[in-house]
Specification:
The complex is a heterodimer. Chain A is an all-alpha fold. Chain A contains twelve helices and no strands. The two termini of chain A are about 25 Å apart. The longest helix of chain B is centred in the last third of the chain and has 18 residues, at about 245-260. The chains are: A mainly alpha, B alpha/beta. The complex binds adenosine-5'-triphosphate (ATP) and magnesium ion.
């Protein structure tokens, strides 16, 4: 009976406790004062300096926090291709995602409308969609690089191709599912096709369309990191890859943290937009 | 049917039918609605009432036959035939006033936004929803939603009003209030209307003529009742009117037994164009119903 009833502050407090426990466990796990003791000598040799200084190669939470503080203090510096502020790197990634996502929306929403309104078009296009939808967006990368040649545009294309399907499917589904009686009202009012599309079908399907957009932006953000690792140059994905080459695990963890935070922010933004157009009965 | 022009009623339904595969829901259906007349259709579930109303609205087309209104064949929906839907069918993303305004905008594309708002507000005030104009449907009760639907239909000043069991989803009290409002808004020959109902008292209160349909499949019009009760009618005193019980019992008797017995039959000499019209109701079989 009382399940699900708890004071407002309970969840945030619990989250904080979990965070502290996690950080403590992390600290304990990596902070080993006598690392070479009991360590396989071969492995100790391999670890080289890290082993001899008595520090694990895995950074402590504090190391990552220091990196984060540096990044927050100087987000936009630019010291050449391999050393840019994280603000700049995230900016590149966001720009690519928004371009690819925006183009996908421009194509997917009108196309989804047509598919949803015309059962014939839907049935005819369905086999193509079913085949293309499960293709990993990264599989398009070689083809994109070959045909487009520009690595930047190729990354945007990959975002486009992965973001398009959820929006297309959801728009078609939402449009096809508009309640018959709402369409009948419009018909008895002799509403023109255009006015019906904008004032009846679009608002009716908007919640479903936005759900598709939310899924799309999530996938796009997942894919951009991988795409940037492949095409290189700029972006948060490239940053993480570059830090791997530098063997700077603290920077990699910082990158992971920021990817997560930005992804959450994108999802929240679309969630807010979705709730603005969602009607309830 | 005396006194009306049988050749050219205002709305004329001429031999319409609906088939699903080899199953005939109804066929050979003929009737007319005169200008200013209020006609109710009563029949059991599944006999095709909604189908008939949708055909009148132009939302569906009949498999046979035709409909003629004011000399022109009905080929599709029209602003001149406004529909009040059973499930109110309001747009949940619009306020009550915007829902009415949406209809008004369709009727009057050139009106300014302010004019539309004013007229929509006036239409809502007519059905007693002055203060609910800016609320969304989910904030309204079932009765209020149905009132918005009525305001939306009436704001169009339609030549004909079509209603598919508009009050059947409401509780008895709300239903009664809304029936009174319909009487005052469209009663007395000011509005041509066609209404489907399950409620015998509702039909007696509102209708000039009541069409009785047999059960399906192959449903047909069995009788046309000419309502003898004088207007204006008052729901509270209706049952005190002489002739009320005889009329009511006749219809209830039809619904309880004859609609079933007559189902699928075509009596000798019966044709769809020649349905018996009845206006006196002190027949013995209707008295049997009273006794228990
Ligand atoms: N798509 C369909 N396929 C087959 N039969 C159908 C279809 N649509 C409706 N019917 C049949 O047509 C008949 C008439 O349906 P309709 O909705 O007009 O009935 P109704 O008289 O309005 O019933 P109710 O009083 O329950 O609303 C029903 O028997 C129904 O089974
Ligand atoms: Mg029905």
């Amino acid at each position: 009976m009382m399940q699900g009833r708890h004071p407002n502050w309970a969840a945030p407090i619990l989250s904080a406790v979990i965070l502290v426990l996690f950080l403590a466990a992390w600290q304990l796990a990596v902070h080993d004062t006598s690392p070479t003791a009991g360590m396989d000598p071969e492995y100790a040799k391999l670890m080289g300096a890290a082993a001899n200084t008595g520090k694990s190669a895995i950074p402590t939470p504090w190391d990552v926090a220091v990196k984060l503080w540096e990044a927050v203090r100087h987000p936009f510096y630019d010291h050449g291709p391999n050393d840019k502020g994280l603000g700049i790197q995230l900016g590149y990634s966001l720009l690519r995602v928004l371009l690819g996502f925006g183009l996908a929306a421009i194509v997917a929403i009108p196309a989804g409308f047509l598919i949803g309104m015309s059962p014939l078009a839907g049935a005819a296009l369905n086999p193509f969609i079913q085949v293309l939808k499960p293709v990993s967006p990264l599989a398009w990368m070689p083809l994109a690089l070959y045909t487009i040649k520009d690595s930047n545009i190729s990354a945007i294309f990959v975002i486009f191709i992965c973001a398009i399907w959820p929006m297309l499917m959801n728009t078609a589904f939402g449009v096809a599912g508009v309640r018959r009686e709402w369409l009948n009202v419009a018909r008895t009012l002799e509403v023109s096709a255009w006015r019906r599309a904008i004032h009846v079908i679009l608002p009716a399907a908007a919640p479903t369309i936005f759900t598709g957009m939310r899924i799309s932006i999530g996938i796009a953000w997942l894919v951009i990191v991988a795409a940037e690792m492949l095409v290189g140059g700029t972006g948060i994905g490239y940053f993480v890859w570059n830090q791997w080459n530098n063997l700077s695990l603290a920077d990699i963890m910082l990158g992971i943290l920021l990817i997560g935070l930005v992804g959450m922010a994108l999802d929240r933004l679309l969630g807010l937009a979705a709730s603005a157009v969602t009607w309830r009965e | 049917m005396e006194g009306v022009n049988r050749m050219h009623p205002y709305l004329s339904i001429e031999g319409i039918a609906r088939h699903y595969g080899s199953r005939t829901v109804f066929r050979d259906l003929w009737f007319g609605v005169e200008r200013g007349e209020f006609v109710c259709l009563i029949g059991h579930s599944g006999c095709g009432k909604t189908t008939i109303l949708n055909i009148l609205a132009g939302l569906e087309s009949p498999d046979e036959g035709a409909l003629v209104m004011d000399g022109r064949e009905i080929t599709g929906p029209s602003l001149d035939r406004a529909v009040i839907f059973q499930s109110h069918a309001l747009y949940p993303w619009l306020t009550a006033r915007e829902n009415v305004g949406f209809a008004l905008r369709s009727r009057h594309p050139s009106w300014s936004k302010a004019e539309i708002d004013d007229r929509a507000q006036a239409a809502l005030e007519l059905v007693g929803l002055k203060d609910a104009a800016l609320q969304k449907p989910r904030e309204l009760s079932g009765g209020m939603k149905q009132r918005v639907g009525i305001a939306r239909a009436l704001s169009l000043k339609p030549a004909m009003l079509l209603m598919d069991e508009p009050f059947s989803a409401l509780d008895a009290l709300t239903r009664g209030t809304l029936q009174d409002e319909v009487v005052s808004l469209v009663g007395g020959g000011r509005q041509t209307a066609f209404m489907i109902t399950h409620d015998v008292d509702e039909a007696i209160l509102l209708a000039d003529r009541i069409l009785l349909m047999t059960n399906g499949p192959e449903a047909r019009l069995a009788e046309i009742i000419i309502n003898p009760l004088p207007r204006p009618r008052d729901r509270a005193n209706l049952h005190r009117q002489p002739g009320y019980y005889a009329l009511r019992n006749h219809i209830v008797d039809f619904l309880v037994t004859r609609s079933r017995l007559l189902a699928g039959t075509r009596p000798d000499g019966w044709t769809g164009r020649n349905v018996p019209a009845i206006s006196t109701f002190d027949t013995p079989h209707s008295l049997e119903i009273i006794s228990p």
